[in-house]
């Protein structure tokens, strides 16, 4: 089993920092998709062409402006085993698409893991910046500055009318995907979530699970991101997302106040039941673990429980994923074995 440093610790350094509105917004992310001119898109490229793209983009790492963002570690996907790839997906450092890529796929990862630059994924280049809490504007400013550095070294595929050209038509234009990961348990408990998310879809945004497109929303965690990349400027996309998220935050806060005001005892009971199950269960599957951790996080945010640091909950959200479980306990496991070790790990963390 490999010893890639980025797969050894569940909590990225950037996740330990304080973020705005962090009781509701877990993280903010901005991703920029780009392709090189005169090179076929990755899905059509030969191995040699993909190698050429990787070599060309690796030369940008020596730019002093890029170095100002800290050391970037090149990681070749071909050098990783399947478990390491899965862990990198669970930490959001690479996409599932890149994890399945065998032709010259790579990622450049910063020391604190807040910056990951994917090469030869669906597009030649995908620049991703991650921030704790509600800091989508800050993530955008960093991502666009890094994009400018790459653009100074390579020619992007660009059309005067359509904008930046990408493999998927839904990314054409700005190539920008901005998103926030939100914890919305009160809107779920008060049965308002469907109405809120339906309204979100009417203003050019989309809702996904924690691993993006095609993934399920578990543990009351929802990823809100822009759906439109063509016909709007980057500033308009960020502004639209920012404004809508502010409204969702307010709705969630109002729902939490209602829950604690009208049924405080029921909320205390729910939180403490989940805390008790997490602290004593002998087996627990990933879906139940996510829901119980959501209950405890809500209890912490509402001041109903003070014995569990938020950092522990952030860590457990990653540690309890299948890849990390197998990484920590050194081997492949059946679903039943994962449920047993997941419960063991949660008990240990809760006990501390």
From TrEMBL:
InterPro entries with a match to the protein in the record: Arg_Kinase, ATP-guanido_PTrfase, ATP-guanido_PTrfase_AS, ATP-guanido_PTrfase_cat, Gln_synth/guanido_kin_cat_dom
Binding annotation for ATP: 27-31, 92, 126, 177-181, 208-213
Domain Phosphagen kinase C-terminal stretches: 24-255
PANTHER family: ARGININE KINASE 1-RELATED, ARGININE OR CREATINE KINASE
Family: Belongs to the ATP:guanido phosphotransferase family.
Classification via NCBIfam families: PRK01059.1-4 (NF002194), PRK01059.1-5 (NF002195)
Gene Ontology MF terms: ATP binding; creatine kinase activity; protein arginine kinase activity
Keyword ATP-binding tagged: yes
Activity control mechanisms: Appears to be allosterically activated by the binding of pArg-containing polypeptides to the pArg-binding pocket localized in the C-terminal domain of McsB.
Sequence motif RDXXRA motif of the pArg binding pocket involved in allosteric regulation, location on chain: 338-343
Domain of life: Bacteria
GO BP annotation list: phosphocreatine biosynthetic process
GO cellular component annotations of the record: extracellular space
Protein's name according to its UniProt entry: Protein-arginine kinase
Organism annotation: Paenibacillus macerans
EC number(s) stated in the UniProt entry for this protein: 2.7.14.1
Reaction(s) catalysed (UniProt annotation): L-arginyl-[protein] + ATP = N(omega)-phospho-L-arginyl-[protein] + ADP + H(+)
Function: Catalyzes the specific phosphorylation of arginine residues in proteins.
Keywords, alphabetical: Allosteric enzyme, ATP-binding, Kinase, Nucleotide-binding, Transferase
Top-rank EC class of the record's enzyme: transferase
